[in-house]
Amino acid sequence: MGLWRTSESQDRITLALRLPHQFESGLNQMMRVPPILQLPFWLICCLLLSLPVRAQTTLTGPLLQGGLVIGTTTPGASVWQDDQPVRVSRAGTFLIGFDRDMPETSRLRIRYADGATEHRVLPIEQRQYAIQRIRLPDHKVTPMTPQAIGRVRRDSRLLRAARRRDDDRQDFMAGFIWPVTGPISGVYGSQRILNGQKKHPHYGVDLARPTGTPVVAPAAGIVTVAAPDMFYSGGTLVIDHGHQLTSALLHLSELAVRVGDRVQQGQPVGRVGATGRATGPHLDWRMKLRRHQIDPQLLVPPIPGNTP
Predict the structure, then answer these.
(1) What pLDDT sits at residue 131?
(2) Helix (H) or strand (E) holding 184
(3) Which domains does the chain have, with CATH numbers?
């Protein structure tokens, strides 16, 4: 058994009581000592046993670029990732994530309710990304008209506002399913070359299916965006799963829900399309945690027979 306590206010002094099997023989020897001389030993034991025993903070999930990790800590604790505050539920649940280009380490700081602080340096596995070359109509690659530029800016403002929602729902705890199954035609992180121009990487997973194929909610949540015709993403749904974790379903031909609707995992929410900047009918599923772009494929089992 081990009892430990660290605190910045105590210059990070660590008090520990170890009770291995050798303790039994030591205890037997102590019992032969006159009772008056045993008093200091028992006082020290009582002091150490009175210290609060804190369950270790646990992390579940892949420590790699694009990964999402569920943390569990003690109620009342505060958590920071790379000096940015992280929501912690009343029960001690929190989420951390790692962007496509996350460096090799991420710093986690946990301050417990009693003032003790824990620091961790998380090693982040680095990934290699594919290069994808795509031909599109020129006006979809770089919008030039004032009307097109205005649409892009309005779309961006709407998405940013929706992703600022931050509440203590934990719909993500039930896990995720594929919103549609089919051939994977695009993967997370790939560098997009559009008409010979280097553009932003692809932050989702593309699933090629015919127009009209039903799309379901990958997890329960609240619909925060339901836009039928965004410039780049066409028919767009954003579902908030709590703690600022969102799913975006793009290029839809039909939307079956409205902003403010609560949806359940597996509930039909729209249909596959080729709207916005798309070369053919498919679903682009993206996920974001605060400022981190998350790889959806890391959260669901492989599609049988599919080799992305």
Answers:
(1) 72
(2) strand 184-186
(3) 2-49 (no CATH), 58-123 (2.60.40), 131-299 (2.70.70.10)
